[in-house]
Amino acid sequence: MALLVLVFLIPWLEGPGLARKAQGLGRLRLDAPWSLFYVLVAAAGVTNFLPTRYGPAAAWLAVGFVLEYVALTRNGVRMQAGARLWPVVPWTLAVAIWTARRRAGRVGSGLSRLDATWLWFRDHWGVVWALRVQERFNRTAESLGWSLRLGWYGAVPVSGAAGEVPDAAEATLQGLLRRFALPGRIREAVSAAASDTCQPPEAGG
Questions:
Q1: Crossing angle of helices 167-176/113-144, nearest 10°?
Q2: Which residue in 100, 109, 156, 181 could disulfide with 151, CB within 3.0 to 4.6 Å?
Q3: Do 137 and 172 meet the contact criterion of CB atoms below 8 Å apart?
């Protein structure tokens, strides 16, 4: 993130003498190709978490990114409404953080440890890594003849099979996740999720 901020400061410092005499918010703009780079980075970050538990928080981030993009790239908006637009961006970030905090404890009820492990990883690492781990798990399940596969929302039975969860399935998934988190961290997160599913929902929740 620090490198990203540094990259976006380059256009602000490009002109002669700008490092000595900045011109306030009027100099905060992005021209091509920096604007394209901004769109790609923002879109990658948002879409990575949209299909997860943190999708609403990612949507709020997307709103902030769009407002920021408009303020940085549209000269008319920047000069006429920039002073009113910029304060809105931190508020969208604050709402995104609050939404993510609220949704962090929302776990489906009646989950197996395999499903709880998978959903915890999927929601915290996003689509890109989740699909890669899902592919490797399903490849292992197929080679070992298991009657289940790992879907986006958890384990699903193979067509025409009982869909029983083998004892080695959870260990296999946790083995795939060791490059992302320590085993103790995974067990702690899964145990917390399992205990949450056993508790009745809060009033009004």
A1: 100
A2: 156
A3: yes
Q: How far is CA 195 from the centre of its chain?
A: 24
DSSP the chain: -HHHHHHHHTGGG-STTTTTS--GGGG----TTHHHHHHHHHHHHHHTTTTSTTHHHHHHHHHHHHHHHHHHH-HHHHHHTHHHHTTHHHHHHHHHHHHHHHHTT---SS--HHHHHHHHHHHHHHHHHHHHHHHHHHHHHHHHT-SEEEETTEEEEPTTS-----HHHHHHHHHHTTTTS-HHHHHHHHHHHHHHHTSPPPTT-
- Per-residue pLDDT tens digits for 2-20: 666 666 666 656 554 444 4
pTM listed for this prediction: 0.73
Task: Please choose, from the candidates 182, 123, 186, 196, the residue with its C-alpha nearest in 3D space to the C-alpha of residue 154.
Answer: 123
Q: What is the mean pLDDT of residues 110-121?
A: 86
